[in-house]
Specification:
Blueprint lengths: L7 H19 L3 H7 L3 H12 L3 H15 L5 H12 L5
């Protein structure tokens, strides 16, 4: 096996980090999200999360967004969020 062993705690911490990243994406305007070049399935999940009012349902949707983000590299997303915070990426 080529995969590196990760403890259950380490996997949970990584999942929580992806969920926090997903929460930040949900808070962004649609124009900025589209400029990031996210996969369509992730964009759809983010748009759906914005419409949810129930706290529990929203939490589950954020977990789903984190699950989707496991299959993509989060580094470009983090870089784009840093640029947005510094004011270099608009709409």
């Amino acid at each position: 096996m080529d995969t590196e062993y990760k403890s259950r705690t380490q996997r949970k911490n990584e999942d929580r980090a992806l969920q926090r990243l997903g929460e930040q994406l949900v808070a962004l305007p649609l124009g900025q999200l589209e400029a990031m070049g996210l996969p369509n399935e992730l964009l759809t999940a983010i748009e759906f999360a914005r419409k949810i009012k129930s706290r529990g349902a929203r939490r589950r949707q954020i977990q789903y967004i984190g699950t989707l983000m496991r299959h993509i590299d989060p580094q470009p997303i983090e870089t784009a969020l840093d640029r947005i915070r510094s004011g270099n990426l608009r709409k």
